[in-house]
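Quick log. Single chain, no ligands specified.
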Amino acid sequence: MLENHHIAIAFDTMLRDPETCIYDNFDNEQFKSLRTLMIDQVLATDMTFHFKDLDHYRVRVAASDFDYSKGADKKVSLNMFVHLSDISNATKPWYICAKWVDLLFIEFFN
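-> predicted structure:
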């Protein structure tokens, strides 16, 4: 899964280089919390889970106790926003969409 590779490289890069290590002033709990959030956001871009995640989000949004700013609803909302941003190229003007598709092909073949 390409998403796992992306997040592994991101953490390796950030933790290895003092200029990109944003965790220097975090305690262990803060580090684990942010790391989990980052992993969830990257994995949310995996198209394997598109319909399952979309169905889950629709159910939560329709629920009377839905609160996008708290707990599990906040997490599922953030994941959905990142996923929708990730797949939004098809809604952009063709010259932008085509450029991103070319970049994706380069990434996949590398």
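Residues 55 and 85 are 17 Å apart (CA to CA).
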